């Protein structure tokens, strides 16, 4: 019970009780010690006094004893009357015969001389002292003295009372002082306890305790303050890391969702609109892959700064990750305001940016979702803005799209396609078709362009529809590898069948060219299939050099070194630059079909084609015209000294068996064009 | 010699021998005999004489060597002397722890304490510095320092303070407080 009660009280009460208990124990022990010492001292003193009296009386009565003068001895003993404690005194001669005696009236003498075996002793409440009376070394008698210790008992009780009073007052004083001292010492500890309670309940680390103590308490307080400082610092750092993007310092997805949720709540209450702008940098991956991550990171920082400077202070610019940014616009009154800000962002970001000597032209696509029109919660709003951005991207660089429900359906479809593309690749549902390239001068098959095809549910899916999906789901490198391997292998097969050796052209995207070990992969494919490099042509587009010129050039040089031909596809449609015609190890230019198609109707198009062919001739490059579909186009091209033509006029893309037969026929005139019919 | 005479002679000789042996034995054990014969009063006085030596200190002249014993000269019957001799034998007294030597006054050459039967007898002071203890004094006994007397059947003593102060001795007050003082 006591233990339970003791355990239930506070620590400081325990300490107080312990202190008081120790004090009381000490005082009790001291009181007992002093009382014992007093008793011992009083006893010793009494005996000493009695011994003195005995000695004195013995000495005084020596002569009386010697001369048998009992009367004188009795008179001497009677002097004890003045001492109230003395009960009686007796003198015995050497033969132990009572010689003289004094006794207080009423005192019963119960002791004989033979009872005094020891000199001094106490019995009941009486003290007894005896002594031999000596004279010249001779024992001439004995003297006996008895005293009442009643006064001692009284003294003892008195002392006990005083001791008890001292004990009680000391205990009270000890309790009072302990209480006061403990309160003094408790004040800083209470502050500490309050601080710890505050931290525990509020999870805040901003409060501190201050003390002038230079003792352990002071050290403890300083330690707690330092600890709180460290925790607060870590807490701030954790908060920053949890809520802000490390690279740009912008709020991250977590904080965006918090702000968005709060903004939606506020907009609901005040019946206002908010807009969420989801944007990313077009072809940022190319920048990252070609110029390196450091430039990519710096570009992101520049973009974040521009975005922050464009929007209002009340708006939030957040980085979701990668090149994706989200802008939360609150208190939007008109949709024109959103369009204005979006266009301003596109315009600002479209400005050329100098990145460590590289002048970059970037663009952005923006998707917009509005509360409460497009979604009523943060997740929905963000998802719809993302879908809208994807739609904007589909429309080309630098576009803004506002979300609508149709986009949602498309998005679902797109997701379905992604899954199907993935499954198709792994189920080997992709296949190649080969479109012949005809030499204008010899009318013979100069080569084939390998084209990837996918038949879904018995229907061919256009490459323009599924290849972007392949790129986005990260399958492009694997698919390119497969196409390259298939094409090389087929070309070797044809050669083994005794057909005339021709080049096989394969389109390789920049993602494959920039992939790690690209050159080694190509080398391995050539080695595995046994195809001579001179019968392989790699087609690249102009966009490949837009953001990754230097690294791509290195790869192309390496491929060229293997003996592979490099061809620029769709020449004239991209960011055509004379510089890469100078730097690149290319052997062939493929004029885009749009120019060929326009030749019949437009002199300008013919002029462009003519210029391109002249440029190629001047650069000693082979010229291939794509999408040649009419005889007139062919005639013009022939007149312009175009080297090779490719198009439906001669043949559509052929299945492998058809291509084999086409090559085996080896037509000597253009009559084989009917095959394409 | 006639055998009868010879027998008578032998009987007389035997008886004489016995007498001689008895007499010799009596002569050889005088003290025991004396002690038994001595009265209680004489014994007390002899004891008191011895006790006096415990309370009196004789001051030897500075030039003389301190004596190793206290010479008690007794003018009393032989059995008294013998009793006293027996009483003091082997015992020492005083701060100087001197032994007590008992001699007959007649044969004494030096005395510290003299016991006489009658104080009046001390007309000539042979030993002027000796403390004279008298068994009794019927008239004026100026030379006696201490005189025994009987008081209600008890042996007491009187001290002539003037006389004893004239001597070269120191008397303990313990002795004086028991005595009847005669100035």
Reported for the largest beta sheet of chain B, the result is:
8 strands, mixed
Number of helices of chain B: 6
Shape of chain A: rod-shaped
Q: By helix and strand content of chain B, what is the structural category?
A: alpha/beta
Count the helices of chain A. How many? 22
Strand content of chain B: 25-35%
Q: State the helical fraction of chain B.
A: 25-40%
Share of residues in strands of chain A:
15-25%
Mean of pLDDT of chain A:
87
How many extended strands of chain A? 21
Structural class of chain A: alpha/beta
Assembly status:
heterodimer
Largest interface: A-B, 13 and 18 residues
- How are the strands of the largest sheet of chain A arranged? 13-14-16-17-18-19-20-21
- Rg calc of chain A: 58 Å
Distance between the termini of chain B: 79 Å
Uncertain stretches of chain A: 668-677
What average pLDDT do the residues of chain B reach?
A: 80
Topology readout:
The complex is a heterodimer of chains A (677) and B (183).
Chain A (H helix, E strand, L loop, with lengths): L1 H7 L2 H50 L1 H5 L3 H9 L7 E8 L4 E6 L16 E4 L2 E10 L2 E11 L1 H53 L13 H28 L9 H18 L2 E9 L2 H8 L1 H18 L5 E6 L2 E9 L2 H15 L3 E3 L2 E3 L3 E8 L6 H17 L5 E3 L2 H22 L3 E10 L5 E12 L2 E3 L1 H10 L3 H21 L6 E5 L2 H4 L4 H12 L6 E6 L2 H19 L2 E7 L6 H6 L4 E4 L1 H6 L4 H16 L3 E4 L5 H9 L4 E2 L10 H10 L12
Parallel strand pairs in A: 11-12, 14-16, 16-17, 17-18, 18-19, 19-20, 20-21
Antiparallel strand pairs in A: 1-2, 1-5, 3-4, 4-5, 6-8, 6-11, 7-8, 9-10, 13-14, 13-21, 14-15
Helix pairs in contact in A: 2-5, 8-9, 8-17, 9-10, 14-16, 16-17
Chain B lengths: L2 H26 L1 H8 L2 H16 E3 L10 E7 L2 H11 L3 E2 L4 E7 L8 E6 L12 E6 L9 E6 L2 E7 H5 L3 E3 L1 H6 L1 E3 L1
Parallel strand pairs in B: 2-4, 2-5, 5-6, 6-7, 8-10
Antiparallel strand pairs in B: 1-9, 3-4, 7-8
Helix pairs in contact in B: 2-4, 3-4
């Amino acid at each position: 019970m006591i233990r339970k009660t003791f355990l239930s009280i506070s620590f400081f009460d325990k300490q107080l009780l312990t202190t008081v208990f120790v004090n009381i124990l000490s005082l009790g022990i001291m009181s007992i010690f002093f009382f014992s010492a007093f008793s011992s001292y009083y006893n010793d003193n009494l005996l000493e006094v009695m011994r003195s009296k005995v000695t004195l009386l013995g000495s005084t009565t020596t002569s009386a004893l010697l001369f048998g003068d009992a009367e004188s001895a009795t008179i001497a003993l009677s002097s004890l009357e003045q001492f109230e404690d003395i009960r009686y005194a007796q003198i015995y001669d050497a033969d132990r015969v009572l010689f003289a005696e004094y006794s207080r009236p009423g005192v019963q003498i119960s002791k004989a001389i033979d009872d005094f075996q020891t000199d001094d002793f106490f019995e009941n409440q009486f003290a007894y002292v005896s002594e031999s009376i000596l004279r010249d070394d001779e024992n001439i008698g004995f003297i006996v003295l008895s005293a009442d210790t009643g006064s001692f008992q009284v003294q003892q009780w008195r002392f006990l009372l005083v001791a008890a009073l001292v004990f009680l007052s000391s205990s009270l004083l000890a309790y009072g002082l302990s209480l006061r001292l403990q309160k003094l010492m408790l004040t800083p500890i209470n502050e500490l306890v309050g601080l710890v309670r505050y931290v525990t309940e509020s999870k805040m680390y901003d409060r501190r305790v201050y003390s002038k103590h230079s003792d352990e308490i002071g050290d403890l307080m300083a330690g707690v303050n330092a600890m709180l400082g460290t925790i607060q610092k870590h807490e701030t750092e954790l908060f920053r890391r949890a809520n802000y993007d490390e690279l740009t310092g912008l709020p991250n997805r977590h904080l965006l969702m918090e702000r968005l949720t709060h903004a939606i709540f506020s907009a609901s209450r005040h019946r206002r609109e908010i807009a969420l702008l989801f944007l990313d940098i077009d072809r940022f991956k190319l920048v990252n892959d070609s110029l390196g991550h450091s430039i990519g990171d710096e570009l992101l920082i520049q973009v974040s700064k521009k975005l922050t400077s464009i929007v209002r202070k009340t708006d939030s610019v957040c980085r979701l990750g990668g090149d994706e940014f989200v802008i939360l616009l609150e208190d939007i009154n008109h949709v024109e305001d959103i369009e204005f800000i979006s266009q301003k962002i596109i315009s600002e970001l479209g400005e050329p940016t100098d990145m460590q000597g590289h002048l970059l032209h970037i663009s952005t696509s923006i998707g917009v979702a509005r509360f409460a029109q497009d979604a009523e919660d943060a997740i929905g709003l963000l998802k719809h803005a993302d879908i809208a951005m994807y739609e904007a991207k589909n429309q080309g660089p630098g576009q803004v799209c506002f979300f609508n429900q149709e986009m949602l359906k498309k998005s679902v479809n797109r997701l379905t396609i992604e899954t199907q593309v993935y499954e198709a690749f792994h189920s080997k549902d992709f296949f190649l078709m080969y479109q012949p390239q005809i030499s204008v001068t010899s009318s013979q098959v100069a080569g084939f362009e390998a084209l990837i095809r996918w038949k879904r549910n018995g229907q061919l899916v256009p490459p323009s529809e599924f290849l972007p999906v392949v790129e986005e789901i990260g399958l492009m490198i694997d698919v390119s590898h497969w196409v390259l391997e298939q094409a090389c292998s087929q070309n070797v097969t044809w050669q083994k069948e005794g057909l005339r050796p021709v080049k096989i052209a394969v389109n390789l995207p920049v993602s494959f060219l920039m992939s790690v070990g690209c050159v080694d992969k190509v080398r391995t494919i050539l080695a595995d299939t046994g195809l001579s490099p001179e019968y392989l042509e790699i087609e690249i587009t102009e966009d490949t050099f837009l953001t990754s010129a230097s690294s791509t050039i290195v790869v192309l040089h390496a491929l060229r070194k293997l003996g592979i031909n490099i061809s620029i596809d769709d020449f004239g449609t991209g960011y055509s630059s004379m510089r890469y015609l100078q730097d690149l190890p290319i052997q062939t230019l493929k004029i885009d079909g749009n120019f060929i198609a326009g030749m019949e109707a437009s002199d300008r198009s013919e002029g462009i084609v003519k210029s391109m062919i002249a440029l190629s001739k001047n650069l000693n490059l082979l010229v291939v015209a794509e999408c040649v579909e009419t005889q007139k186009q062919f005639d013009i091209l022939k007149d312009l000294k175009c080297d090779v033509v490719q198009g439906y006029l001669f043949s559509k893309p052929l299945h492998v068996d058809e291509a084999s037969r086409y090559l085996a026929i080896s037509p000597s005139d253009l009559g084989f064009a009917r095959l394409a019919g | 010699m006639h055998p009868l005479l010879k027998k008578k002679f032998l009987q007389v000789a035997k008886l004489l021998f016995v007498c001689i042996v008895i007499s010799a034995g009596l002569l050889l054990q005088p003290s025991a005999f004396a002690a038994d014969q001595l009265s209680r009063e004489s014994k007390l006085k002899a004891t008191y004489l011895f006790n006096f030596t415990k309370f009196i200190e004789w001051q030897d002249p500075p030039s003389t060597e301190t004596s190793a014993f206290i010479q008690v000269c007794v003018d009393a019957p032989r059995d008294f002397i013998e009793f006293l001799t027996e009483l003091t034998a082997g015992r020492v007294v005083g701060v100087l722890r001197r032994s007590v030597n008992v001699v007959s006054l007649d044969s004494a050459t030096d005395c510290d304490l003299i016991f006489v039967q009658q104080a009046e007898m001390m007309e000539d002071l042979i030993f002027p510095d000796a403390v004279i203890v008298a068994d009794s004094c019927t008239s004026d006994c100026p030379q006696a320092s201490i005189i025994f007397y009987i008081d209600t059947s008890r042996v007491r003593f009187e001290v002539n303070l003037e006389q004893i102060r004239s001597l070269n001795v120191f008397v303990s007050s313990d002795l004086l407080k028991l005595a009847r003082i005669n100035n």
